[in-house]
What does this fold into?
Amino acid sequence: MLSINSRGQIVIPKEVRKRADIRDGDKLALVSWLNNDGICCLALIRADNLSSEVSGVIHSLLTDTG
It folds into this structure.
């Protein structure tokens, strides 16, 4: 569970940060998915992994036959 403060900052629980090896100063990209009602999902991706993650998503979308 995440919380958002009055300034719009998201607090990631300590245990999650520890397991994901997220440290002070790390850069994360916030990625969102849209559906008919607006944004349905959010994901955090390390900024240094963003291009490979986006490439994987695009590849999946292009090869999806369903």
Summary: The first strand starts at residue 3 and ends at 4. The helical segments are 14-19, 50-63. The mean pLDDT is 84. The CA atoms of residues 27 and 47 lie 5 Å apart.
